[in-house]
Each structure stands twice: as structure tokens, then as C-alpha cells.
Amino acid sequence: MVLRQLYCLFLCTTVRGAARTIPYHGGMDTQPLYLQLADDIAAQIRARVLRAGERLPSLREMKLRRGLSLSTVQQAFRRLEDLGLVEARPQSGYFVRLRSESGHVLRLAAPTEVAVDPLLWSYVEDQSEQHTERMQGFRSAVAPHALLPTAQLQRMTLDCMRRHPDLLSDYGRPSGYLDFKRQIARLAMEWGGQLHPEQLIVTQGTIEALNLALRALTQPGDVVAVESPAYFSLLFTLKALGLRVVEIPTDPVSGISVDALELATRDAAIKAVILVPNFSNPLGALMPDAAKEKVADMLAARGIPLIEDDVYGEFYYGRQRPRPIKAFDRSGNVLYCASLTKDVAPGLRIGWIDPGRYRSQVEVQKYLSTHSTPTLNQAVLARFLESGAYPRHMRRLRRAIASQMQGLLDGLARYFPADVRYTRPQGGFVLWLEFPQEFDSLTLHRQARQEGIGLAPGPLFSPRGDYRHCVRLSCAEPWSAVQQARLVRLGQLVRQQYAG
Ligand SMILES: Cc1ncc(COP(=O)(O)O)c(C=O)c1O
Q1: Cα angle at 246 between 329 and 205, to 5 degrees?
Q2: Which parts of the chain have pLDDT scores under 70?
Q3: Ligand 1 contact via 231 beta carbon (within 6 Å)
Q4: Cβ(351) – ligand 1 distance below 6 Å
Q5: For the chain, how many structural domains are there in total?
Q6: 324: domain range?
Q7: Could you point out which of 18, 35, 112, 462 has its C-alpha 20 to 30 Å from the C-alpha of 134?
Q8: Same domain for 154 and 271?
Q9: pLDDT for 27
Q10: Which Pfam families does this chain map to (predicted)?
């Protein structure tokens, strides 16, 4: 079952009064004055004289310009609101609403700073050493230990140290170890990627790649567009860098609304867009190729860089790896970020960025922040990739994760109330549940945590603490009797909240 409703929170498919045409009225009009004024403004909006997102003159200015009473102007503005053409923003005035090609009204929230509910730090805390074992369940989005090629990597580490003792005595290049980058370029050939070793910069995981891209492209106070809901560490990073965010409506199945992104980037001073187009976190959404191409072309034409996070691209359950947006990038406008932390070795913390035409800025940021990435870790992973073990390992891992996801979906159908909606991702580790509006995921999180069951409450994924009635569950933990018992217990806690 799909969560289209979520999307409809933003994208109002029925516009009040939108189907009505508003005729232009000349001087002989016998209509009330407020309707004449509303019609005039509506005509200007339709002709795009007044543009989406633009602020209308204030009530007082309009009163003076048109020689009307304040209450007539107020009535006219209310009428425009009823027609869905303008919206009132507290203490800011009236603004022309954003409207997609198809005539849908898009309610884009104003840029916001990222607020973090202190309770949510408990989620981060659970990653600390004493909690790691206990707080499993449905929280972490990374391959389980048993499915990682740890023994093989152990042997390769010893071998690398024996053959290249210099790896320990050298700082390494800021952009990374060339042998490793060659292997990454080979890997990208699977999705038709043309990544060049010299162009890549190796990072400490995708998270450092995102950090470097943001530092290279923005200043504190700038606005960045993100999916809504968005990955919480990305939100924390934006907060740490003093950036504000515009949340773009995102469909749980097909990803970001291209219409909304098109409108948002038309008027707002957006300095960069960040997307997770393949099996996003927390929705598990997958953008269709046509949408990826459209976004790549649109942002390139507007000169707005796109930071692409493809950390889950390899975790497809179907036959073919989905292409990243980078595959449609013709002008170097996409800064492509990924890693081997989810699928091969979380502890080695190796990721990379192809910064497109922003390479020199990103390289400077790498040098300034951590200088370089541990070379030994890169050398070990280069050996692993070179050995040909990766495709075999990934086939096994993908099969396991797909079957764990199926176990979770079957369990949800059995143990959760029938009105709970959830996504059915085609890849990745996570799915998104939507409960009725009055449900409190923070209460569920607190109760489950006391019993050692991990999950991710919805507000973690919103800069304003929205999505309180939503929960992200991960299928990364192997399906077992213990895992099943945890899901049964979660279902009970959900029902208790329904009853109480
Ligand atoms: C969307 C997304 N991006 C980035 C990361 C972090 O990746 P890495 O471990 O490569 O830094 C995660 C981890 O959960 C994620 O979900």
C-alpha cells in the first residue's frame, strides 16, 4: 500500500475554485469593489505578471493605490485566498502561491532552520558502545555483521601492511589513493558512469562527502533544498553549517516532486539541492529515470548544483542497478557522493565524491577539514574490489536484504493494525509507516527503547519536528524468532496507544 496521502499534505490536488475562470471586468462593472480588485489581481497572477512566491503589496499600499477602504482590500485578499491563488504568511503578508504546470497548488514552507528535539538525541546515543548490542531491532540502516566480508578484509589488511608498510608512514594525498579510485571508476561502469579516477576525492563515508560539498557551495545562512522527510544526519549537518532548508514534498514511491522542485528553485535563493534518488532514507523511494533526467537538466539550466547521495544505489532487489542522477549529468553540475560503508566495511569509513565542475572547491575543503583519508583503508578496499569478490558478495547481500524486507512486510501485515500505511521499497533497508494523525511516534520510541527495541521516530527526519505520526523501520537485522517477537511487541504497543 502506498502513502500517497503524505504527498497530498503538500500537493493539493483539488484547488478550491481553481476550475472557475475569472473574467476581466472593465470600468462599467457592477460587481462589488472587492470582487473587481480580486479579479484584477487574479488576472495578473494568471498572466504571470505577479509570479509564484512573490509578495503582494501590503493591504495599506493596495488601499492607497486603488483608493479603496481597508476592509474592501481585506475582502479581496480573502477571496484570492479562497480561490487558492494567494496565501497569508504570519507577519509577512500575502504571497502568490506556487502552482505546478498541471494547475496544482504547491504549498512550500518557507526556509527554516533545523531544530533538534533533545529527546531525539537518545536516538544518537543508542549508537554508543554500551547500547549498540541492546538497541537493535529496526533502527540501523547498514548490512548486519554476519553478512559482511570481514574475514576476507582481515586477510587483505595483513597482506597490504606486509606489502606496503609505507601506507602507515605517509599522510597520503588529500584526494585519495589512486588504485582505490580506479576501482571506484570501474564500479561506476555498471550504471553507465564515467567517473574518472583523477576527478574523484576519497572521503570518510558519504557523510563527509556531503559535508565537503555543502562547505564548498554554501555560506552560513544560505538556503538548501532537501527532500521531505530527509535523512536525519543530513539535517544535523545542515544545522552544524548554519544552513536553512526548504523542504520539498517527496512521494514515498517516486521520490521528490519535480514540479515542486521546479517551482521552489524558480524563485527562492536556493544555493544547492540535495537528493537521495535511489532508495531514499527514510521513505525508501526510487525516482524514475525520467524524473532524474528532468531534475538534472532543470538544475543545470538554472545553475543550481545538485548534491546526490547514492549510498543505497547498490541495494536494489530487482535485476538492475538504478541509475543515479549523475548518469544524466551533462555539465558537471552534479556532485555525486557514495561509499562502501553500508555494504562492505562500515568501520573503514570509506566514501567518495565526484564533485563535477566544483572539484577544486571541494578539494580545498577536504584539505582544510581532514587533509586526507586513511590510505590503508583505501588500499584494503582496492584489493577487495580488484579481487572480483564484490559482485558475488553483493548478490548474496541483496538477496538477504530483500528477504529480510519481505519478512518485515509480512510481519507488519500480521501484527499491526490494518489502517497503518507503509511503503514497499524496491531496494535499500528502510520503510516508512504512517499512522493516523493523532498517533505519537515519540511515545512509541520511548516505550520500545525501554524494552531494547530500536526504531526511528518520524520527527527525526524533519527540520521542524513534523511527521510525529510516522515511523521508519529498518530491515537490516536478519529475520529471526527474536526479531519477530520484537515486531509482535511493537504491534502491541501500537494497539495500546490506539486504545488509550
Ligand atoms: C541517506 C544516507 N546518506 C548517508 C549516510 C551515511 O553514509 P556513510 O556511512 O557512508 O557516511 C546514510 C547512513 O545512514 C544515509 O542513510
Answers
A1: 55
A2: 1-30, 98-108, 117-135, 267-268
A3: yes
A4: yes
A5: 3
A6: 149-389
A7: 462
A8: yes
A9: 39
A10: Aminotran_1_2, GntR
Q: Which amino acid is at 246?
A: V
- Pocket probe mutation, ligand 1, options 206, 227, 348, max atoms within 8 Å of Cβ: 206
- Please check whether residue 94 is in contact with residue 3, taking contact to mean a CB–CB distance below 8 angstroms: no
Q: Is residue 348 part of a domain?
A: yes
Is the CB of 311 within 6 Å of ligand 1?
yes
Instruction: Give me the CATH number covering residue 39.
Output: 1.10.10.10
Q: Which residue owns the Cα nearest ligand 1 atom 1?
A: 281
Q: State the CB neighbour count (10 A cutoff) for residue 198.
A: 10
Structural domain contains residue 457? yes
Helix (H, G, I), strand (E, B) or coil at 14: coil
| Together in a domain, 245 and 373 | yes
Question: pLDDT tens, 285-344?
Answer: 999 999 999 999 999 999 999 999 999 999 999 999 999 999 999 999 999 999 999 999
For residue 308, how far is its CA from the centre of ligand 1 (angstroms)?
A: 12
Q: Are residues 185 and 332 in the same domain?
A: yes
Rounded-to-integer distance, Cα 353 and Cα 262, Å: 25
230 plus 162 within the same structural domain: yes
Measured in Å, residue 206 CA sits from the centre of ligand 1 at 6
Q: Which amino acid is at 277?
A: P
